[in-house]
Amino acid sequence: QVQLVESGGGLVQAGGSLRLSCAASGRTFSNYAMGWFRQAPGKEREFVAAISRSGANTYYADSVKGRFTISRDNAKNTVYLQMNNLNPEDTAVYYCTTDPILARLYSNNCRVGCDYWGQGTQVTVSP
Known about the structure:
Blueprint: E1 3-7, E2 10-13, E3 18-25, E4 33-39, E5 46-51, E6 58-60, E7 68-73, E8 78-83, E9 92-99, H1 102-106, E10 116-117, E11 121-126
Parallel strand pairs: 2-11
Antiparallel strand pairs: 1-3, 3-8, 4-5, 4-9, 5-6, 7-8, 9-10, 9-11
């Protein structure tokens, strides 16, 4: 029912920036919280950032606080992840997801909820 499509990944040098986008369709976008996760080779999926329905509340993993910013444009049914001061540890496939409850996105790695995921976009940061 819900479709999510990520874009904006690529190769960047350490210290550089990228902006990821996730376009949603199939439901009323403004009724759902949105989030970003990432998965590096050999590691499990980890939480990155989440944003509430209106965009008033945001939540970040400690590893990206002060460097990444999540935002949304409900008129365009799109959520963004601005990534600044990237380092090689940020290298991963980045996925977006959605859930009616914001807390589910940053709790227990969203094992409950987050039933819909995009295909992912690769971010590679060189030293």
